[in-house]
């Protein structure tokens, strides 16, 4: 199942990369240095997971992935903007991303900030210009909320507060869930939901997909924490061991690597049970669970 998943992921990834490249190359109205900075991070590689989730859920409900492609590309722009800003000295202060110097190392802090701002705004420009139906507008609303002040950004605020030992809950395990449902889970979940909304999903389906998405977000974060502890720079393309060096609250610092792996496996099985509630071919998303558990990058 993992091989089938990886084959489809590659198709979605290529479609996203081609679309983003063509779109950005057509934007001659953007100043050259700014466009270069935006493209530097957009074309730096990565799994293109969020756009893949968007296109996969659209196809799962019977629509062609081309219907979701502009929204999928917008998701990748938003994700990329968040990485650029996350790497800044004022945030995580990371010099590398995807095996290359971080955007602020390549273009300077000011241009990196502007490139992130530009990607966020261009994402909504792209999505809005491709809103053709009421469902498209609904997807746009979900996307804006997930990326905004009560979604991904709220998770980043909680994460920063946690570095100063100010937690959203007195229970450390509950704090981890609250932080990462927002910081990581929101954008992954909305990718799944946007594709389904564009395809005309009913509320019962959207509710199940949201539950699945949030579980997947936690699974993804746990494996990310594990990789930070046991991974290597060559595979991950970014500085490793930073969580431990900064005494950051993570699933590994709270539970240890072995128990964190057990929790990841339990969440994956729970997420698969949620998929079982859906009357669709969910094999891509089941494969996603297995892929995430075994990932090394």
Known CATH architecture: Orthogonal Bundle
The end-to-end distance, rounded to whole angstroms, is 18 Å
Number of strands: 2
Principal-axes geometry comes out as: globular
Count the helices. How many?
15
* CATH C-level name: Mainly Alpha
Main sheet? 2 strands, antiparallel
Secondary structure class reads mainly alpha
Approximate strand percentage: under 5%
Low-confidence stretches: none
Radius of gyration: 18 Å
Q: Approximately how much helix is present in the residues?
A: over 70%
The sequence of SSEs as H and E is HHHHEEHHHHHHHHHHH
Q: Give me the CATH superfamily.
A: Farnesyl Diphosphate Synthase
Could you tell me the mean pLDDT? 95
Could you tell me the CATH topology label: Farnesyl Diphosphate Synthase
Strand order of the largest sheet: 1-2
Write down the domain tally: 1
Topology diagram in text:
Elements lengths: L1 H25 L5 H11 L6 H12 L8 H18 L9 E2 L2 E2 L1 H5 L1 H21 L4 H14 L4 H12 L8 H27 L4 H28 L2 H4 L5 H4 L5 H5 L1 H19 L7 H12 L3
Antiparallel strand pairs: 1-2
Question: Could you characterize what this model shows?
Answer:
With 297 residues, the protein is mainly alpha-helical. It has a single domain, classed as Orthogonal Bundle (Farnesyl Diphosphate Synthase). 73% of the residues lie in helices and 1% in strands. The protein has 15 helices and 2 strands. It has helices at residues 2-26, 32-42, 49-60, 69-86, 103-107, 109-129, 134-147, 152-163, 172-198, 203-230, 233-236, 242-245, 251-255, 257-275, 283-294; strands at 96-97, 100-101. Strands 1-2 form a two-stranded antiparallel ribbon. A hairpin with a 2-residue loop joins strand 1 (96-97) and strand 2 (100-101). Helix 1 (2-26) crosses helix 4, helix 1 packs across helix 15 (283-294) and helix 3 crosses helix 9 (172-198). The radius of gyration is 18 Å and the shape is globular. It starts with a helix and ends with a helix. The mean pLDDT is 95.
